[in-house]
Amino acid sequence: MKEIRKNRTHRKVRWDRIAVTVAILGGIFFGIKALIAHSATKPTDTASEIVYENTYETKLESPIPEDPAPQYLCGIDVSKWNNIEDLETSDDFVICKASEGVGYEDPQFVRNIEAAIENGKYVGAYHWARPDTNSAHDDAVNFVQTIKPYLGKIMIVLDWEQPGTVGQTDWAASWLWEVYSMTGVKPVIYMSSSVAADPHYDWSGDDYSVAKNFPLWVADYTTDDGGNHVISYDVSKHGWETIMWQYTGDGVDRSWSKLTAEDWENACAPTALALRLSVD
Q1: pTM of the model
Q2: Which of 43, 184, 249, 279 is at 20 to 30 A from 75, Cα to Cα?
Q3: Which residue from 170, 215, 152, 160 is spatially nearest to 190, judged by alpha carbons?
């Protein structure tokens, strides 16, 4: 009998333990359920973590380029000294030397510009100014006669770099306005950043000033300590609108242009103002 009572006592103890265990499990269950419900009402912390992670990933996927080339049209300028057959598929535009001074046409102008057009490039033509030997009018006539077959298809450029003459801004203004009147196309002027920014040269002024009316193609081959291309002179001083930047002349002259494809085509087309000037 004593043994039977002992077994009953053990059974009683086991039932007590089971009851306690059930109570504990129930408490854990309802505690977890309450915790889940509480977390669902506070999404702020989780949401902020997601936003932070997405923002960080976006920054990594869209780095700021060291140079602006990926954002712009890229191209080259050529003359008789360059091999136009070496055009890269990445070149968007080609600007060809057409003439210089009076009575001179680049012997490879037609070959170069025809090759550029055939390869589907945006094209331009430039004239090397010679204020040291000729009048602006005579230089302008030589240039227009040379490029006449391509008018409407090309950007027009005055190459302003003849040594000892870059301060003759009146000559440059006369050439630009005459060519504008004769062709209906507004020219671009090319020069180094030091010339464009020089306070001693009068590029600004009245309504017929160069800087206010003709866009700038600036040349500057400077690089900073990190190897990034930079413009070393502030060319905005005279009010220039800089649309192109020649950043290297290593082997072949290379430039970036802010113009879009549509802008380039518009720059080649005659304007209403120029047509009125030519009629007058």
Answers
A1: 0.72
A2: 184
A3: 160
Task: Give which of 80, 86, 81, 154 is closest to 119, Cα–Cα.
Answer: 86
List the beta bridge partners of residue 133.
Answer: none
| Angle of the 169-183 helix axis to the 272-279 helix axis, nearest 10 | 90
Nearest 5°: phi and psi at 28? -65, -45
**Residue 54 to residue 48: CA distance in whole angstroms:** 10
Quick one: pLDDT at residue 210? Answer: 94
pLDDT 10s digits, 90-125: 899 999 999 999 999 999 999 999 999 999 999 999
Long-range pairs for 181-184: beta carbons < 8 A, 24 or more residues apart: 181/274, 181/277, 181/278, 182/140, 182/141, 182/144, 182/278, 183/144, 183/147, 183/151, 183/156, 183/270, 183/274, 184/151, 184/270, 184/271, 184/274, 184/275, 184/278
Q: Which of 210, 48, 195, 104 is nearest to 126 (CA)?
A: 104
Q: What digits encode the pLDDT tens for the residues 186-224? A: 999 999 999 999 999 989 866 678 999 999 999 999 988
Q: Which of 220, 233, 151, 134 is nearest to 187 (CA)?
A: 151
Strand partners of residue 3: none
